[in-house]
Amino acid sequence: MSGVKAASVAGVKRKRKSGEAERRATKSKPRPQPSSDEDEDPQEEILRLETQITESRKHYNNIATLLKLSKAPEPDSEASVLAAVALCRVFTRLLSTGDMVKNKRMTEAETMIVTWLKHRYQEYIEVLLSDFLRSGHPPKQSVALTLLLRLVKEESKAQKDFNIKNSPLNRTVEALLLLPEEDGSRDEFAEKFFGTYDDIRYSTFRSIKSLLQSELDDTEKERVARNSLSLLLSLEAVPSSKDDIQNLYTNVQGKSPVPSLSSYKSQAQEAWLATLRSDITKEQRKSVLGVFSHQIAPWFAQPEMLMDFLTDSYDVGGATSLLALSGLYYLISEKNLDYPSFYQKLYSLLDDGLLYSKHRSRFFRLLDTFMSSTHLPATLVASFIKRLTRLALYAPPAGIVVVIPWVYNMFKRHPACTFMMHREIRDPTLKQEIEAEGMDDPFDMDEPDPLLTDAIESSVWELETLQSHYHPNVATLAKIISEQFTKRSYSLEDFLDHSYTALLDNELNRDLKKDPEVEFEIPKRIVTAEEGLNPLGNLLTLVYDTR
């Protein structure tokens, strides 16, 4: 019995010892901690990481964690945007406190920390450019653009030797120019920064030239040229003096980021030249020509450098030539450009499509200027008058009402051409022959030289024909050629912007002195041959019989 008891006591002791060992082992095992995703949202976690970085250097590794969060592959990831914004605040503080600048008093460990921070800063900029700005996701692109430009401003505040060429701005502009043409980020950049701040504009000019002259494949170069043109065309105001260069984005102490007005315009000129030399399309060429005199030429210290571009455009023909006229006029009047055979080329623009063109008003304004000199040969003026009156025969009413006042003004300005309205034939034999058989118009419509068309020997019978035009406004206006020339001249501006809609509205809103007479009684039958023939009845009978 005693042996059994001893054995049982020993067994109980062994069980007790093994139970205590299990409890100690259980206590020594670390309990699983709930993940941060389970007990707090991403915003709280990011704010916690940012706060720790601010509090102590020992938490600088949180920067790497935030960088990892900002690289989330999902385009609409809220965490990546929050992390990017938090990193901007972190680096802004580090820049402002000088913690990213080396000095001689630093220890080796401190120098290594500064180097590490600079590498993370460059990595952050690359994330904004690659993962955000090139993401194709508009909200993330807008955030990236705002943050990148914020870093540019903070660098200018913090760095004594700040140079905008070494800031993130240059890489930002290059990234924007390489984006697809339909991307809206450039419009935001143009509206908020490029069109507002002179230093941003100055640096962008330099970036455009540099990128277009770099090694790009044909597709990329074409895309960059289109985007550069779109960006440059968004500029409307051109500085005329140093006082106009006051709106700066960066805070640079000492030397201005825009050295002088001449340097400013020189960079703009180089950017425009690089863009125009990049084989722009026909439509892009029209866009440039449309704003040349007001938005492009004032940037050029030497607008003559665009002479080849304008003359090539002028020789293309059609609407492109019409638009190139204003640019050529600017160079002729302001820079004394000599364009050989100018009037011959101008005469060639009077083609079938001129009076139908949407650029008709612009052309007639310039044509009136070019033909204003009283020293032009009468034969030359007569050719322009005759050709336009001939084109008016099959032009829309809105085009005809421009031609007639212009012709009237030309007759007033050049009395030697009035023979085209009234010419006395003194040879009785010739007069009798013309009255009996008529005459051929001596004007040669196919002659390209306006001095050789024989228009001065012709007449403006086309204007008399227009007096029977179906449109009452045109018919009434054409009758001025048959009346006494008592009016000094017409203001062409009153007729340039007419259209079908305007002419129709004028006719519908005109006050009638009396109601027009209309046929209100419906005839019961058609006049037949048995009841007496007349031309109209005969015609109607034939039409009825053929049916």
TrEMBL record:
Residues 1-44 are annotated as: Disordered. It is a multi-pass membrane protein. The chain crosses the membrane at residues 391-411. The keyword Nucleotide-binding does not apply. Belongs to the CBF/MAK21 family. Keywords: Membrane, Transmembrane, Transmembrane helix. SUPFAM superfamilies: ARM repeat. It comes from Karstenula rhodostoma CBS 690.94. Residues 321-478 form the CCAAT-binding factor domain. GO terms for biological process: ribosome biogenesis. It comes from the Eukaryota. InterPro entries: ARM-type_fold, CCAAT-binding_factor, Noc4. This is CBF-domain-containing protein. GO terms for cellular component: Noc4p-Nop14p complex; nuclear membrane; small-subunit processome. It is found in: Nucleus membrane.
